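Objective 1b: paired records.
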Amino acid sequence: MTTSPHARPPAGPGGVTGSGDAAADACDLDESTEAEWQPVAAHVAGDRYLAADSADASSGSIVVGLRVAWWPVIAFVLVSFGLAWLVCLPLWLGDGIASPLLGVCALVMMSTPAIGALVVSRFVDRPASIPRALGLWPLRPVGRLLGYLGLGLVVPMLLVLVALPIGAALGSYPADVTGFSAFRELTEQQVAQATAGLGDPGPLPPIGLLVALQLVSIPVGAVVNAVPALGEELGWRGFLLPRLLPLGTAPAVVLSGVAWGLWHAPLILLGYNYGVETPGWLGVVMMTGTCVVVGAVFSWLRLRSASVWPAALAHGAFNAAAGSYLLFAAAGQPIDLVQGTILGWSGWIVPVLLVVVLAATGQFRRPGASRRR
């Protein structure tokens, strides 16, 4: 869950005559080749493809249907959203985000998209291989997968961190990058609470050292957080994104991001992430915007790697780095997350620019695709 957040193959020109090119163009992102639309699946019962071509499957590519199978998509959304609200019900009936159950509920909630994807894949979609359909397998080409895993680790951390100086320059984030006063104050409070009744704990280590230790621990946190983050990514980028690709890449990326953002509503409406002082509707709008923007980066990793693992690691890295705004904030000044940090509008600037550059350079194409002549 952010600081908290996919379908099947078509019979190409070889399986469709006459209107094959028009159908391919209608479902292509913005580019495809005749090779991309070679027969890669057996077309059974409308949009359901039950047997992928072995060469295509072994290379780990994403196979896209000629049109969206809406029933599996709707079933997935209903299951995922319904379970999310059910998991958060104790918070709504209790003390909200002040409840001691918040951490447990948030962690369990992160598994609900995976449950939705697995249930719908098993009982509705019924692909020949669920792990392949969700991007869990195969783990090759190894070089490509490792490259995008590396990007998944580094890019989200950089996006989270670069949002801070941009917010400071725009006046939306109160920064203190020399004294680290907010982090110093927070650390002193935590030490005082932990050593209450135990005497003087002595001087703290240099605050700069503590900040550095926090930053170098982010990659470790990213790997740890990737485990629960996979629960979300199996749903949003593993299942939903490929199943919306017949609409075109841009619509698929945006719609899957919107779904991801709205799914957070059970927690956001209680004040999670944006605080209880922020109107619930505004929190949901901002969270949805964040998920669309950040989700586009995760979608790039998913499409280019043809695997859900880079997106899961990216999600883990994003969550691990998200709290870093506390390291560089000025003490005594409120931080409005609607305005600043990666969750606020000023934090969206760099991710949007990155997505624009990636789209303009054809980086949202699936492996093996090139522009249709």
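Objective 1b, second protein:
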Amino acid sequence: MRCNTNNGSIENIINHSYNNLYLQPFLTSTTDSKSNKIINKIQYPLDYSFTSTPITQDFAKGIKLLQDKHIIVPVIEQLQTKQIGTATYITGGTLTEYHPDKPLPKTIWVLELENPILDTESNFIKSKIDANNNFVYDANYKPRISFDLYDTKGNLLQQRKTDDQPQSFIWGYNQTLPIAQAMNAEAKEIFHTSFETETFAGIQDNVNQAKTGSKYFEGSYTLTFAPPTTTKQYVVTYFKLVAGVWKYEKQTYTPNTVLSGTIDEIRIYPADALMTTSTYAPLIGKTSETDANGNTNYYVYDSFNRLQFIKDQDGNIVQKFEYKYAE
């Protein structure tokens, strides 16, 4: 890659090296016009060798599971180095730990360095499997984010940054689309329905009447969601149709609360959490998003199923999309 300037040209040379076994790039180097070289070194599951010794460490089990399932492209370690003259310095790195019982990420580890360090065996331990089948890595790697819980289709249900609040998700439409996410709440602490995929009595299907999506409920609806603890306060929010207008309601939640009338978009979550929810037209796109304060935006598509407008709950256009083709 060459960039011309008023003072001449600046040239960066990028080289990619591939492994002949699994045809993935294991090294990418970028050399600038001053001969400084930045190198990314990548290791994959097949770069780690195990012996017949039983594997007891979860980190190692995760890598072995990927190998056994022939999942070879996930990156286990990516190391960033910078070569100046004949010396190579490590500037950053990430490790991805996988669950021992499912081929899904468990923890992202980040290399925390105050300053770049010289790339030598005495300064840095490159990840490997030792003689006891344990995964060994440098002590400067620290956990940054954990992926705690998945559903049966491999969708993420709960994640958490180190020393931060949990973030949780609910998947709908046969576990294909995320219909709710909550900050500062665990997956077991939240509930949501907008009646889009339910089929029990009382559900009405009218896209022009529903608050979100195409369905809503008429009658008495009993909330049976059981919070995991009684020491925390929970709230339930929902929309209720009153005199032809959808009103946002919020109240303290207790199990077996009964909501009556014409209702839609029910959410239960801890009182100190924030929850947003969405509806979709499958194979087209998102049709609504309701934020933590109960404000709803609607997504409108043209006859080619392209996003055309985003409107607020009063019908005002907040964003417009135009598609033009080159002649």
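The longest helix spans residues 58-68. The first strand starts at residue 2 and ends at 5.
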